[in-house]
Every structure is written in C-alpha cells, then in structure tokens.
Design brief:
The chain has about 725 residues and is of the alpha+beta class. The chain has a domain of about 260 residues: Alpha/Beta hydrolase fold, catalytic domain (Rossmann fold, 3-Layer(aba) Sandwich). The protein is built from 13 helices and 44 strands. The strands form 10 sheets. The chain has an 8-stranded mixed β-sheet, with helices on both faces. Strand 12 and strand 13 form a beta hairpin. It starts with a helix and ends with a helix.
Length: about 725
C-alpha cells in the first residue's frame, strides 16, 4: 500500500490535458484546481539518462521526437543521436520513453504505452542503432512487450510478452522463446504478479549474467491464487465504448490476507544451449523472492528471499550454471524485516552493502561475496534511507536522517569512517548519481522553498546549476507558512505541522482539518516543499494540521514496530491526542475539528471516528481499507500476520466492526476500479452503516483506480472534501 499524493498532485493541467474552463465556473472545483494541478508546473532538473562514460547524458526534445546528447559538465549540446523523422528502415512519429544499452551504442524506444496495473505497463518497443541510424521493431511477432532489458554486451534484449520470456538476438535479427508455459492469470514468467508490483516495488525478475551468456528469472504460478473481478463501465474519462450497455470487468489474481500466494520458482536459461535449469532453494519456508541480481561474475547470482511472516530474510549465493546454492546472509526480526533491507541492496565488484535495521535504526553493513561481514559503514540514532553506491576509492554515498527525522541529508563516508555532508543543513535533499558515482544531480528543498537542482562532483563542488524554481517561489510567496510542532501523546513526542489561514487572527476561533496517512514506516511531516489542497483550505479559513503518530517512519524501529499485530490502535490514540492538543489552543474552535486521509489514512480516519470520546465533528475517508482481511497478503501479513494466526488483532483493527461508534458527519470516496484497496471495502462499510441506521455521504469515481487521477477527478476529490468540511465544520 503506497500512495504519494503530493507527487501526484503536482501534475500540471497541461500534462493531464485538462483545460481550466472544463472545471466549471465559480465552483469550488475550479477554485481548487490550481492547488491540485499547478498551472505552472515546477521546473525540474533536466531529464537525464546518463551515458556509460559518466561524462555525457541523453535527454528528449520537448516534443519527444529527438534524443539529444549533452556534455554533463557544461550542459552543451553535442549531437542529436535520434531523430524520429530521419531514421532508416522503420519510422515513428514520436516516442514516450527510452533507455540506453550498457555499451552506449543502442537505444530501446517505446511508443503506445498501455498500463497493466498502477505501475507496470506494456508498450511497442523499437531498437535503434545509433551509428547506423537504423530503427527496428523489437519483436515482429509480439506487438506489445514488457520490461525489455539489454544484455550487458548490448547484443541481445530479453523481454516479456503475454507472460512468456523472449530473447531478441540483435546481430541476427532472430527471436527465441525462453518460456512457453505463460498463461494470463495462471503462470507469469519474468514479470511479477500484482502483489510483488504493489508491495515489493518491482515489476521485473529478469537478470542477465555479466557475460551475457545466461538469463535468470523467477516464475509465478498463480493457479491457486483467488481470482478477483472488478466491474468496468463506459465512463467519460478514457471511455470504454464496448461497455456502453453492459459492464465489462477486470479479472486478475489478488490474494487477500490468509489466501494462497503465487508459488515462485527460480530458473536460469543458457543462451548457447537454449536449455533451462530449475534452481532449488534449500529452505522450505521460502514464500517470496523479492529480488535477484548478479554479482560480478556469471557464477554468482544473489537471490533474496522472505518467509511468509516476513520476519526472516535470507540471501543465497547461487551458481546458475551448476545450480549450487549457498547461504550468504540471514536476518531475523521480532516484528517484520524493514523493506529497505531487501529493497536497497547494493552489489559491488567485491562485496554487497546491506541496509539493515538490526541495531534499532537502518544502517549500512558491508559483506564479502562469501558472506563475511567486512565492516559496519554507518551508525548512530538515525536512519539511512538510501544507499546510492560506492566509488573506486571506496567512498559510500547515502541519504539519511542524520540532521533530524524531518530532513534528509546526502553524505559520503570514506573508508576510514569520515562522513562529509554533500547537501545543505536543515533541508530535504536527494541525489541521482552517474555511473561510478563520479558526479550527481542534487535536489534540495525545504517546507517554504521549492526544489532547486545542482550538478555536483563527488567532492561536493558545484559543477553547474540546473534550475532553482525562483519564478515558482515568487508566484506563491504569499502562501501561509507551514510551521512544525511537536505533540505529546502518552509520553511520546510526535512530529507535526500546522498551516494557519493567511489572515490569521489570534483572537479568532478557527475550525481544524487534520490530515494524516499514519501507515507503518510512512511520513507526512517532512521539511520539504509541497503545494497541495492544504493551502487552499487554509486560504478558506481552516487551520490544517498533520501529526505523524507511532508506527510512522524515521524515528527508529521501536517507534515504528510498536503497531505490530495491532494496526490502528496506537495510531488512533495518537491522532485523538493530537486533535485534543489542537482543541486546547486558544485560536481553535474545539467543536469544529475534522479528520481526513487517503488509503491507510482513510483507514485511520475510520478508526479514529469510531473510538470512544473522539473529538471529531466531520470526517472524510478516501479509498479506505475497512478490514485487513480484505487486503493483500504481503502488506496485511507483514504487519498483522495471517487472520488465522492473529484473529483478535484483525477484529480489533477492523473499522468494519466498529461502525456503531460513528457519530459524526462522514464522507467516503472511492474509485470503482481500485485494484489495490477494492471498492468492496467501502461497500461493506456503508452497508454496515445503513444497517446501523447511520447516515453518510459517498462519492464514487467510475473506472478510477486507487490514485483517482485523470480528467477532473483529483480536483473533484479535494473540492468535494473541502465543500464537505465547509458544510459540516
């Protein structure tokens, strides 16, 4: 369960093809639109695809018809490497995305992208040879492909089509089927199933050996996973005319908590012999294989595994040629293995760097490729949020909360343990590094300063400025200030922020909207730039407050894992205490406090308004989970175990079983095609309210998924929410 509302909300009207006059005249929807879809989109750093040399990069032209090569240090244009109007053999009008081969001689270019789920997609791909100016379809037999991946030598491309893996040998213009047993909703090869995409943040399991002679992959047997059906309608946003009179449906495999997962198996394919080997891992408790990646040689594939409870992770060293398997690393937890541990593994030529929370905070540890610990790289009462990589001198580059949980600092640590910060203090900073970590694009913002982008050398010296968003900053210079606060809840100091109306008067009483997400490991209270509906609400006389309660991230493992097996309890205690703190302020009308949230935030909204003695007069829950038994195995069981192992926990954590406690104005909004938090959550909850004789408002978005984004939908979501609070607070 992951949703980044702030990022989604910064999409421009132009990018979404929404004319402002389509949003209605003199309505709250049109008024809120500039806040939800800023008319002048934030300038971003150049769309850089770094070349293998680390000295140049590629970037698309504004109309996506050309790909241009630039000098990294100066930003000067070197040459046009691709021009859609001048290619030989095949031709296209424009492209949607591109990637470069490891040797820098070829491009993979995509057109006609079609989404599969929220992140995965298929497209028509072309291979472009830069020197010869030749453009050819990646496949003549399969019109749409997924997750194409160049071999390290750039001579082949592996891809997936209709759940089977194929290899295109570019030198011979031939295509070989690696698998033939792929069947929709039955067997997936190379790509991932729905749960892996959503909860392990991966859409591919293809892994080329460094010598380009072996392709390893994971297969998913979904046969025993229950089928989920979602109704689809004609609609007016990307209309589906085939469903004008009778609804269609999306059918896909979705395992709810306690149900069967896909059975995953590991395989390697020999390019020369065209033979596949099945690799057996020794532990019968393995349920998930979230990552596979080769080390420096073709004889060592690192395979990361998890048990079903996700409290034991093991990394195996596999020889795909001999199928010999050895255990390299084991980590266990009394709660759950922090996702960063398996999502942020960095493999070097001689070692592997693991981001482990074993000390109570996420820190970096280096192991040899034989499994011996070489050193603990970082330590302290802060979290390393990402390891970017290591350079030839042994300097490790990383992002952390060393300057406080609200901030992010980009740093490097040398082989002797000396840390040098590469980003300004008291900011939210991130970086993208060139191959070899010789230079980086640094992104820096804070709560009142839009992002600015700088090209730095690995020594931290500025090479050139890439953009500072000064025009955007001046345009919104009159925005009310976001002020950071701390709130005490049962002896725990919680981080929060408040946004006051621009004409705030200390002697006046204001209504409060409390926004929160509250999910395990998440953070809403951050010292970074965001521009969203909260400022529109403040402009219209509301105080907006947000508090990150127990269970949220960057406060250490004890703070985060206290919610284990009992989601919703501490979060609710903390949200209610935060609301009571707001009610105690002299400028707050204690009788006019509302709460709202999206996804997990919608779930916590329903938990909070069900609690005895809560102070809320109105609430808005968007795409809420109402019972963890309705949600997917990976997420629900990570924090709650299975319903059989933790029946009381599931009962106590279900808003669905607490509807009798609802005693405030309530609005629920959901997308009817939400493949993540199914609309059944909302329907079952509203059914309970109706049986209880409780009134509520409900707004459904036809054919919209969990993000409820597209056409006017996002503006309608927030416009309806503010209108609801205006009428009920």
């Amino acid at each position: 369960m992951k949703i980044n509302v702030n990022i989604l909300a910064t999409l421009s009207l132009t990018a979404l093809a929404i004319p402002t006059d389509s949003l209605g005249k003199n309505s709250i929807v049109s008024d809120i639109a500039p806040y939800v879809y800023p008319a002048n989109r934030l300038a971003t750093s150049p769309d850089m695809t770094f070349m293998p040399d680390g000295l140049t990069y590629l970037a698309p032209s504004a109309d996506n018809t050309r790909i241009i090569k630039y000098d990294l240090a100066s930003g000067k244009e070197i040459e046009t490497v691709f021009n859609a109007s001048k290619t030989r053999e095949a031709s296209i009008n424009s492209f949607e995305s591109f990637s470069i081969s490891p040797d820098g001689t070829k491009l993979l270019i995509s057109i006609d992208k079609e989404m599969v789920y929220r992140r995965s997609y298929k497209a028509r791909y072309y291979v472009f040879e830069i020197k010869r100016n030749i453009l050819k379809p990646l496949s003549k037999e399969h019109g749409y492909q997924q997750i194409p991946q160049f071999s390290p030598d750039g001579r082949s491309v592996a891809f997936v089509s209709d759940n089977n893996i194929y290899i295109k040998k570019l030198d011979y213009d031939t295509e070989v089927a690696v698998t033939t047993n792929g069947v929709i909703n039955s067997v997936i090869n190379g790509a991932t199933d729905w749960t892996y995409e959503e909860e392990f943040s991966t859409t591919s399991t293809l892994a080329w050996a460094p010598d380009s002679e072996t392709l390893s992959y994971v297969s998913f047997d979904e046969t025993d996973v229950p089928l989920y059906n979602i109704a689809l309608y004609q609609g007016t946003c990307d209309p589906k005319n085939d469903y004008a009179l009778y609804p269609g449906q999306l059918s896909y495999k979705y395992p709810v908590a306690g149900a069967n997962n896909s059975t995953v198996t590991l395989h390697s394919y020999d390019i020369s012999t065209r033979k596949t080997k099945d690799i057996t891992l020794p532990d019968s408790e393995i349920e998930y294989i979230p990552r596979i990646e080769y080390a420096a040689t073709a004889e060592q594939l690192l395979v990361t595994t998890l048990n079903r409870d996700q409290n034991r992770m093991e990394i195996y060293s596999v020889n795909p040629k001999s199928t010999v398997v050895k255990s390299l690393y084991v980590e266990e937890s009394k709660a759950w293995i922090a996702p960063l541990t398996y999502e942020n593994i960095v493999i070097t030529n001689k070692s592997v760097i693991i981001n482990s929370a074993r000390s109570g905070f996420n820190h970096l540890y280096e192991y040899s490729l034989a499994g011996a610990q070489l050193r603990q790289i970082t330590s302290g009462d802060y979290d390393v949020k990402q390891c970017y990589g290591i350079d030839k001198a042994g300097n490790v580059y990383f992002q952390s909360t060393a300057s406080g949980p609200l901030n992010r600092v980009v740093s490097k640590i040398d082989i002797k343990g000396k840390i040098t910060d590469l980003s300004p203090a008291g900011t939210f900073s991130s970086a993208e590094f060139t191959p070899g970590c010789n230079s980086m694009v640094l992104t820096v913002s804070d709560a009142m300063t839009p992002p600015h982008y700088t090209l730095l050398g690995s020594n931290g010296k500025v090479m050139r400025e890439l953009g500072n968003n000064e025009n955007f900053k001046s345009r919104y210079s009159t925005l009310p200030e976001k002020k950071f606060i701390t709130v005490n809840s049962d002896g725990n100091e919680l981080n929060g922020y408040i946004i006051l109306p621009p004409d705030f008067k200390q002697a006046q009483k204001y209504p409060v909207i409390m926004w929160q997400y509250s999910g395990p490991g998440s953070q809403e209270v951050l010292n970074r730039w965001s521009f969203d509906w909260q400022y529109f609400a403040a402009k219209n006389g509301f105080i907006v407050a947000c508090v990150d309660g127990r269970g949220t991230g960057s406060r250490g493992r004890e703070f985060e894992t206290c919610v284990y097996r009992n989601l919703g309890y501490y979060e609710t205690v903390d949200q209610i205490n935060a609301a009571k703190y707001m009610a105690s302020l002299p400028y707050v009308d204690a009788d006019r406090i509302g709460i709202c949230g999206w996804s997990y935030g919608g779930y916590e909204t329903l938990m909070a308004i069900s609690a005895l003695g809560n102070p809320y007069k109105a609430a808005v829950a968007i795409a809420p989970v109402t019972d963890w038994r309705y949600y997917d195995t990976v997420y629900a069981e990570r924090y709650m175990l299975t319903p059989r192992a933790n029946e009381d926990g599931y009962n106590d954590s279900a808003p669905l079983l607490k509807t009798a406690g609802v005693d405030c104005a309530l609005l629920i909004m959901s997308g009817t095609a939400d493949d993540n938090v199914h609309m059944a959550n909302t329907m079952e909850y509203v059914s309970r309210l109706q049986s209880d004789g409780t009134l509520c408002d409900m707004l459904l978005f036809p054919n919209m998924n969990h993000s409820i984004n597209g056409c006017n939908a996002r503006a309608v979501v927030y416009g309806k929410m503010i209108d609801f609070f205006m009428k009920n607070l």
